[in-house]
Structures are given as structure tokens and as C-alpha cells.
Amino acid sequence: MINLTINNKAVKVPEGSTILEAAKTVNVKIPTLCHLDLHDIKMVNKAASCRVCVVEVEGRKTLAPACSTPVFEGMIVRTDTKKAVKARRTVVELLLSDHPSDCLICEKNTDCELQSLAAELGIRHIKYEGEMSTYPIDNSSLSIVRNMDKCIMCRRCETMCNEVQTVHALSGTGRGFETVVGSAFDLPMHETNCTFCGQCLAVCPTAALTEVNNVPKVWDAINDERKTVVVQTAPAVRVALGEEFGLEPGTVVTGKMVAALRQMGFDMVYDTDFAADLTIIEEASEFVHRLKHGGKLPILTSCCPGWVKFFEHQFNDMLDIPSSCKSPHEMFGSIAKSYLAEKINIHPKNMTVVSVMPCVAKKYEAARPELGHGGTKDVDIVITTRELARMIREAGIDFLALEDEEFDNPLGESTGASVIFGATGGVIEAALRTAYEWLTEETLENVEFEALRGIEGTKEATVNINGQDIHIAVTHGLGNARALLEKIKRGEANYHAIEIMACPGGCIGGGGQPYHHGNLEILQKRIEGIYSEDRSKPIRKSHENPMIKQIYEEFLGEPYGETAHEYLHTHYVKRTKM
After folding, report:
1. What is the pLDDT of residues 53-87, one digit of tens each?
2. So what's the pLDDT on residue 42?
3. Residues 66, 185 share a domain
4. Whole-model pTM?
5. Whether residue 200 lies in the annotated active site
6. Nearest-CA neighbor of 258 among 223, 232, 229, 220?
7. pLDDT computed for residue 39 by the predictor
8. Is 56 a catalytic residue?
9. Which pLDDT belongs to residue 520?
10. Does 252 share its domain with 196?
11. Residue at 128 is within a domain
């Protein structure tokens, strides 16, 4: 342990700690911009590029960046001296001198870390004026907008993309005044191997990276009298939406969310959880079929579009391993425009399906040409949790005062197995609840597989089914996925089933969720909210959902059968590995 003093407060921290880490232990706030420390997913942005966190260290002539300066025995630190504060202000003033002043119409207005820091430091005018760097806005993709005029070169996105996700779609380019974080050869994002997971924009402190705004499209659809507008909401949305209205992370707001969507003018409000149950029936059937007939193992879950695009680029020699199941919201769209459209007697082309997702990659996924039927797309428009919150506020709805309402039927009934899709490990746990009973023809009394839960990067478990040990792995974050698949390719590991989610924590940490600003306690609380919803459900196994049984009897026929394949399964595309 190292003993030091910060602002006259005695501090004792482990050797190797930084001044910033030491200051946090005694509640001394040192502002930062480039720093981002996500220990639980082994990610620390080490750029130390912004110099906002400079402090005075006794005996040192120059100011020290607190985020990258290790402590030493007897160190004396001052964070609040005139010299340190003046330097901090100067750094922020210089950043503002090369930053657009369009805060009122900026996507990150009130949620911008640069804006907040300028306010904290009392900066009210641009001190340094002169030439500003300008770049064309890249809105080529359907998921992410890059506005490099607002880039402050913190390199957070680069660290997240390269070190955590190992996608390597972003990197610092240029020199001096022309330096910016960009793509290889300045390619537009849709021409790179970007997976559109959105983790870059989740950590961006400004509006240099934001999601494509689909809110106007939704309002247009709602106000089009020729269209029947159906909305569905993903499991992870209900435990994060409340944060936008001041509620604690993890607060379950399912009923209020349904009520808000009805007030906004949607014709029908459904739960993607229903389609998650449907996904389990198909995915568990596929797993059992492969297990019994010597099919290709391990089976990989395919619910996450960021992960799907990742393996299409990075592991395109393994395209026969992932499950062929569509993701739940795509399954819902397919069923809505066939089974539901027939029931309510409307033409599929007159139905607009809107998905509320925790994910920006879902925007890209909905446009994939193979995800449609009979000339119509399964899902027409995707908005994020943040966009839904914006729409609720636009509509003048007092969200906290809403009385809880129920989803519509026949596609609104769901089980506890479906809601846990929102947390890492949830998909494979839900599949096990069903596969176990199908293989053993016995009732599974304890449905909670604790070994598959938690925010660790990779988890492993062995479940004995009918005397056979079924080896399972769960991982989240694309860097962890890469490490696991390369281990399998080298023959160092063997599994029967693997769940992979692109985002840290799973969907609860998706790129479209309310910004958590590196606070992983928020992700943990969202996960707890997911599991509390599971425990509150009267039915906790997908195959016991009466509405699921009904749709197979009336429309789909045999699980994993011909009709099910036509509407609920897909194929993958071999993409260039850059």
C-alpha cells in the first residue's frame, strides 16, 4: 500500500494506482474527458490526451495528468491550486475554440460531457478564436452518424472499438491540426467492417458519434391514416427507460411504457418478449436436432445483429455454426405481417412495424434484404430507448404519472425466460429451460442457472442432461467473443452451445440505452431488474406460453418445420475481412 496526501487528506491505496484513482477514494473530484475506466470489462482508455485532469505534485515542475500518473510513497498532491485550475480552464477553452457552438440543437445537448465541464468551470465565452477544423458528416450507415467537427480526440471510441470490441474500424488519422479519429482510407462507415454495435457512441463524451435519428419516421407513420402502426418493445428497454425520467437504474417500467406508447398513438402495443419465447422454441429445437442427429456444434446464438455482422467479417469460415434463427424482433415483425395481419384482416403492406430496441445495430439489421417476406420487410423502423424517451417528452406525456397498462394480444403474452434475453447469459439460460425438459421429459424445478449469470467477460457451465454433460459458454463484448472462437478453432476448447452478445452486459448495455458514462453499477442494476421481472412471471419457460402453443397450432405447425423456417429463420453473408 502507498501512503500519500491529496488536498491535505491522507490516502492509502494499492501500489500502481493513479492519482485519479486515489482521489476517488477520498471523494476528491478531478474532472476528466478522455479518461474512461471500465474495470469489469477490462477497458481503460490510456490516451491521457485531454489534460483536463492536471494537478500539482510537490517537487514536480510541470503539472501531472492525474489519470496516468502513478502514486508514490509520500506524494503530496493539490488538485485545486490556481495553477491547476487555470490550466484546466485553458484546456477546455482551447477545445471549445475548435468545437461547434450549436448546443441548442445538438444530439447530446444536456448529456454532453464537454458542455457539462464548461459549465462547471464557468466558461461563458470563447476566449480563443480562429480557424476551425471541419469534416464532412458521415451519415452513410443506417445506425451511426459521425460528425468529426465535434471530435475532441479523447480516443475513447478508438479504445472501445479496437481494444474491447477488436473490430478496428476506427483509428486516429492525420497530423497536427488535421488529426481526427476516422476509418481506414476515410471510408464511409457502411463500407467498413463496423458492426454498428454502438459502443463507440456509448462512450463518446460529445456528439461526434450519435445514432441515426428515426423519430420523424415514426411520427410520420403514426399520423398516416392509411397505416396500421404496430410497436414492439425489447426486454432491456423496460429496465432502462425509467432512467430518462429520473428513476433508479433497473426500475421496471413495463406498464408505464405500454401506457405511454398507446397515448403516443400506436394502434397496437406488443412485447418483443413474446418473440423471444418464439425464438427459444426454434433455437432449442435446432439445438436438440443437432445434438440428436450429429449436427454441427457448438451452436451459436444469433439474436445480436452486431455479433452477426462481426462473425460475417471476422469468422466467415464458420457460418454453418450459428443458429439460423432470426432475432426476436425480426421474428415478431415476420409474424405480425403474416399471422397477425390475417387475424385483423389487413394487408401486410398496410402495416408498419416499429421496434423499440436498446441497440443501434438493430437499425442496420432491419434493412438486411434477407429479413423480409413477400416483398415486405419484417421490421420497418427501429428506434432506441433514448429515442423513445425523446418521443414521450415531445408528446408532453407525464411518464411518472401514468397508470400501468398491459400489452395487446395475441402477441403480448410472455414468460420469464423471454425477459432475461436482455442480460448476458439470458438467451442460453432460457434455451436450457426448454431443451432440458424436451430431452429428459422431466420437469425442471430450479430454472435459474446461476453459473451463466454475472458480468464477467466469459462464463462456462456444464449441465448434465440424460447422463450427458452439456458444455456451455457465455461471453459478451466482441473482444471476448474473438478470444473464445479463436480458442475453439485452435482445438483448445469444446462446447455444445455458446451465447454471444456484442455489448458489455448484453442488451442492457446496448448502444441505444441511456448513457451510463462508464458507471458499470448502472449495468448491474439493469441486470437485477431483468431477473426480478423473470421471477415475477407466473410462467418461466418458453414452451409453456399458451400463446406460443396457439401460434404453432394455428399457423406455424411443427417447431423447426417447413413453415417455421420460412418465417422465422435466415441465412448469413460472407463479408470482407479488413
Report:
1. 999 999 999 999 999 999 999 999 999 999 999 99
2. 57
3. no
4. 0.94
5. no
6. 232
7. 60
8. no
9. 82
10. no
11. no
State how far the Cα of 492 lies from the Cα of 510, in Å rounded to an integer.
Answer: 30
Tell me whether residue 119 is in a domain.
no
CA dist 121 to 19, 91, 116, 159, 205, Å? 21, 11, 9, 27, 17
What does the alpha-carbon distance between residue 456 and residue 453 come to, in Å, rounded to a whole number? 8
Number of domains in the chain: 3
Instruction: Tell me if residue 106 is catalytic.
Output: no
Catalytic residue among 56, 244, 365, 429: 365
The per-residue pLDDT for range 12-57, each reduced to its tens digit, is 999 999 999 999 999 999 999 998 877 655 567 777 889 999 999 9
Same domain? 525 vs 422: yes
Low-confidence ranges of the chain (pLDDT < 50): none
Q: In which domain, by residue range, is 150 found? A: 143-212
Which CATH number belongs to the domain containing residue 187 in this structure? 3.30.70.20
Asked if 434 and 542 sit in the same domain, the reply is yes
Domain of 362, CATH number, reads 3.40.50.1780
Domain-located, residue 137: no
Catalytic residue among 107, 283, 437, 499: 283
Cα–Cα nearest to 272, from 405, 403, 420, 371: 420
Catalytic residue among 58, 248, 370, 558: 370
> Quick one: 56 and 153 in the same domain?
no
From the candidates 56, 211, 286, 312, which is the catalytic residue?
286
330 as an active site residue: the answer is no
What the block records as the C-alpha cell of 478 is 466482441
Last residue of a domain, one of 152, 180, 212: 212
Q: Which of 302, 323, 418, 542 is catalytic?
A: 323
pLDDT of residue 40: 57
pLDDT digits (tens, 9 = 90+) for 487-501: 999 999 999 999 999
157 among known catalytic residues = no
Shared-domain flag, residues 369 and 422: yes
- Distance CA(141)–CA(382), nearest Å, equals 14
Strand partners, 12: 3
Q: Tell whether 117 is covered by a domain.
A: no
Cis peptide upstream of residue 546 (ω within 30 degrees of 0):
no
> Is 362 an annotated catalytic residue?
yes
The question of whether 365 is a catalytic residue gets the answer yes
Q: 462 and 379, same structural domain? A: yes
Q: Is 414 a catalytic residue?
A: no
